[in-house]
Amino acid sequence: MGIIRKTKAVATVLQIFEEKDEAKSVVHLIELVKDKMNKTTVYRILDRLEQDGAIHSFNGKDGLKWYAKCEGCSASHHSDKHPHFQCTKCDKVECLPLEIKIPSIKNHKVDSTDILLIGQCEVCCA
Amino acid sequence: MGIIRKTKAVATVLQIFEEKDEAKSVVHLIELVKDKMNKTTVYRILDRLEQDGAIHSFNGKDGLKWYAKCEGCSASHHSDKHPHFQCTKCDKVECLPLEIKIPSIKNHKVDSTDILLIGQCEVCCA
DNA sequence: AAATTAATGCAATTGGGTTGCAATTACAAA
DNA sequence: TTTGTAATTGCAACCCAATTGCATTAATTT
Ligand SMILES: [Mn+2]
Ligand SMILES: [Mn+2]
Ligand SMILES: [Zn+2]
Ligand SMILES: [Zn+2]
Known about the structure:
The structure is a homodimer.
Chain A: H1 8-19, E1 24-25, H2 26-32, H3 39-51, E2 55-59, E3 65-69, E4 84-87, E5 93-95, E6 109-120, H4 122-125
Helix pairs in contact in A: 1-3
Bound molecules: manganese (II) ion (MN) (2 copies) and zinc ion (2 copies).
Chain B binds a DNA duplex (30 and 30 nucleotides) through helix 2 and helix 3.
Pfam families (chains A, B): FUR
Protein name (chains A, B): Transcriptional repressor
Organism (chains A, B): Flavivirga aquimarina
């Protein structure tokens, strides 16, 4: 079970994801709200928002955890299975609205995929 | 620059990768050789072996760092760009000798990919 | 064999993330 | 509105992978 009470801290975190459709690392999020709440609270709120299907998490290239807004997910069904893109110049991370075909692997059962493309984003490419 | 001197510790670590063609987490490697060398030494040897193109690293689903033997890589050219597979039952990780097609992304330049397939391995499938 | 310096051991430290518990606060029931 | 309750938060301590500084050891060169 995720968010039950709409606290100020929850609203603050949610607004960050509403404002701009861009993934954020937990480390960055903690920095952003460090005057408003404790880091433990940030971790717990992110956990609950993910359980509710409001945001989804994945690992960046450095192994840090990142979160981004979900599109059409719910507590019962997380449908975000897209790849992510991380820029080596500016470190920005984007959700990629595309599907990558995974060939079936003999004698293996693939339940989920974790795909990170690394390179240069639109801004840094130019 | 990677390995310069062939020490006993280097030989020990290398042999682990020669023996069996299977990826190993750093945590597991440290455990395997804990009577023979310090954990710092393990980290440093892995760094140097990777620089030399003898092994390559990637992140497992839990965020831990894993290493596996390289095939045809050298210090100047790391050609290992394959996906990896991690079993949710037994935690084993394999290098997958297959290529996954990445569609080109508008205004982005993709330099490398980090693909982890998660599911059940051959043994755990049966 | 002696000199050089890469490699190692060890203790301390860093940093992301978690846990236990007391204090606070949202919210529903009265 | 007031009260009761349990969800939420703050805080300090902790966990653990990974890194760092530095003195010591050992591989390789001369
Ligand atoms: Mn996403
Ligand atoms: Mn591999
Ligand atoms: Zn960029
Ligand atoms: Zn398995």
